Request: fold
Amino acid sequence: MIITYPNKILRKKSNLVTQDEIKNGKIKKLIREMRNNLVEKEGIGLAAVQIGVHKRVILVEINKGEVNPYINPVIKRKSFKKISIEEGCLSLPGISGYVKRSETIWLEALNETGEKLKLKASGLPAIVFQHEIDHTDGILFIDKMMKKK
Reply:
């Protein structure tokens, strides 16, 4: 079940995932539950907080049908070039608006086995990463929206 706004859970900052949580299988179970919710709602990104778990875990669809988990994601660098795109959110059904975000980002995260990943994302994937990482900090896209719809 996806938690929806104005539930205060969405405003709470999420905790880092430990290597023990990755090793004992709790995170794999969480990722499976998140993936089921994302597929059911036909979304392209989801943060654990959106299903009520305050852990820094996000799912992002990089290519159509390819959804990957990212644990403890951190944006290391952002491009100066910004793009404005209309965003929506599974936790804010029926609301959309334009948000200005960096066109390209470089980030680090862990995969579901705890291995460190370094990646660069541009365009829509970069927007989704920024949107979902904001969720882990209790920030919603409506906080950054330029126009409300």
In short: The mean pLDDT is 95. Residues 26-41 form the longest helix (16 residues).
